[in-house]
Give the backbone structure.
Amino acid sequence: MISAETGLTTTKAPFIEEAKSNGELYIQQPYNLYSEDNQIAWRRLYDRILPRWRKYANAKFLEGIDKLALDPHNIPRLEDINKFLEPLSGFSAKAVSGYVPAYLFFDCLRTRAFPTTITIRESNTLDYLPEPDIFHDVAGHVPMHTDRVFADVLVRFGEVAQTAAKMVQSISDEKEQLRRVESIIKAMARFFWFTIEFGLMREGNHLRVYGSGILSSYGELEYSIESPDVQRYPFQLDWIINQYFEIDHYQPLLFIVDSFDHLFSEVDVLEKWMLEGRLNNVSPGEPLVNEEDLKSFLQAGE
């Protein structure tokens, strides 16, 4: 029997390992398994980042924090978050045991569900994050989902993934099919990275953060706006889909949108370019596309 003494610490949670071994991707949040160290980690993460949210986060994110009534002292229960979230945008946080293959992830967005990690990093290594945790997903992503326009961007992105899957499944030549789906996944992942995860937005005369990878990082919040080492450019789709990125350090290159309506329109352009074949041969490099991601697109709908 798994007890709270073992906790739900990222990379060290027996509950998660058991779920994975049973082939369970979508799970329930076993709240009783959070240890005191897990709760301390949440408390410390929230307490130190709050002043930087107020200084650097976009207005809709700050509104979302209030609308969700996040508890700064305790790890949130996803069922409580969803009670606040669903009436606002139709979205819900959906607990998962770990990595979600690309198409399944995007298709969750299409149906207004956000795959949410339930583990949390250790309280004595707040800046070390080997993989997403509940602070990144709930405190970084979910407040943005309270905004209807931003939520619709995610749904639209999921629709683009559905269009992509249907398109590549119609290709009869297997070698060409694999080459093309890999390129499209790479382009979509880069778009998602430079917007939903690491995007900046103009608010009047200021730049503000809306990307969740930055919003959940105490150090990168300030770095992304203040550092002279960061290159910041207006959103350019042709550049973004051909720009590789690395995940293990602060980002040296960021892109700026004018509004969430602007971002929504760029997802429309992304789909148009895909249908025209302009995503079929994007530049090589990161991110690497694994076999599970490829299969998820090629087997979508089966």
Q: What stands out?
A: The mean pLDDT is 95.
